[in-house]
Every structure is written in C-alpha cells, then in structure tokens.
Amino acid sequence: MTLTAVVVDDEPLVAEHLQRKLEELWPELDILGSAVNGRQGLALIAETQPDIVFLDIHMPGMSGLQMAEDLPRDIQIVFVTAYDQYAVEAFERNAVDYLLKPVADDRLEQTITKLRTRQKPPELDLQQLLQQLKSGDTQYLQWLRTGLEEVTELVAVEDVVYFQADQKYTTVATPDRDHLIRMSIKELEKQLDPGQFWRIHRGLIVRVDQIVSARRDLRGRYTLSLRSRDEELRSSQAYGHLFKQM
Question: Which tens digit of pLDDT belongs to each residue from 110-145?
Fold first, then answer.
C-alpha cells in the first residue's frame, strides 16, 4: 500500500529541502502537498487525508504542537524543528518521531523505517531522548539566511563549500553559486563545527570534506583543490599544521 504525506513548515525552502530528501530516500511515498502555516495545514490535511504529516513545531500563529491537537488520531506525526527543547511536548502529542533541522539522511532513514512498518512508537524515556539530542551537534550553526536586499534565501550549512571574507560581508560558496551574508568570518567561525570546517586563512573557511588535495609550497602554504568548485584556495602558513593530519 502506498503511503501519503504532507509537509507543514512556515519556511518554504526548508519544506522543499525535506521533500527532496524524502523523494530521494523514499521514492514510493506520495507527497500530496505542503502548507506554510497551521491553519493552511489543517485545511490541506482535511482535503487530502494523508497517512503522515511532517510538521514544523515552531510556526507563527498556530504552532505545530497546537495543530497536532486537532489532527485525527490515526495520522502519524513526525515533528521537525531546530529547537530540541520541544521534545517532551512533541512526544506527549504521540509523535512517531522527532527530527532536528537540518535533517541528516541517516536520521531520516530511521524515521522512514518506522513509518514504513507502521509501528506504534515505543515507550520512550524522555530524559534519555533529551540527553541524546543535547549530545549532538545542534549547538553549531545549521542554516544561513543569505542575501542583502528584500529577497533572502535559506542555505543549509552542510551545502557550503567554503566561506570567504568580502569587506563587511562574507561570501558563501555552494557548489552552484555564491551568496552573501552580513556576518564576519570571525563571528562565523565561532558558530561552525570545527570538525567539519577549517579556517585556512584569516579570510577563508573551508568545509573539510570538500578538500580533494592539498599541495604544499616551499613557504609552508597549501593550495587546495575542491570537490565541488573549480577554483583553488590557498592557505596561509599559520594554518599549515591542519594539513599534517590529512
């Protein structure tokens, strides 16, 4: 039997990101549509009667938790949010699962397995759950709002190849284009996972898994080839020690 789902999230780019992940990891799932707020979500659910709702908790007006109170009991709810402090309330609403943004593929696959088997959620130790959530990497920056004019875009940090200082701003280089954010490299570095991002120059931070090769010159500087961009980056001598562990 084909299962159906809707996505409710007040940030359309986040909803699109989740839908793409679901289409990749669960192509048999029939996604019936998406909504940007609680009231629109209730109307969509009443119209389409899905099996599953991927529901953002933190929305203006009607929150996801409030919306869940009005959903039929046979609908399976997966709460999706960037804020782990809602975990207890989420499971009090009988959620099948709870996902933190940005949703990692392996974590989403675990949720898909639960939904496919249509198992009731197990008895959960909420204190243990909260401890697991807090032990993750949720303290680091996970989404960037880019753009300096009226139009802004949401970019997942996991999609960034490198950051480069650009006067008062910072260029955010993703595989297919560049974005701008109004944040200094110094401020940005404090919010990034040092296990995933290295500062290689006072004006450059690169995602480690994007480094294909590093060529050392006579002055101890390294020229980096990247996996998803054609240009090369050069480190300063002060950061050369980072590449000795590669």
Answer: 899 989 876 444 444 444 554 554 454 446 788 888
Residue 94 φ then ψ, to 5°: 60, 45
Asked whether 90 and 79 are in contact (CB, 8 A), the reply is: yes
Q: What is the pLDDT of residue 124?
A: 46
* Angle subtended at Cα 229 by Cα 152 and Cα 159, rounded to the nearest 5 degrees: 45
Print the SS3 string covering the chain. CCCEEEEECCCHHHHHHHHHHHHHHCCCCEEEEEECCHHHHHHHHHHHCCCEEEEECCCCCCCHHHHHCCCCCCCEEEEEECCHHHHHHHHHCCCCEEEECCCCHHHHHHHHHHHHHCCCCCCCCHHHHHHHHHCCCCCCCCEEEECCCCCCEEEEHHHCCEEEEECCEEEEECCCCEEEECCCHHHHHHCCCCCCEEEEECCEEEEHHHEEEEEECCCCCEEEEECCCCCCEECCHHHHHHHHHC
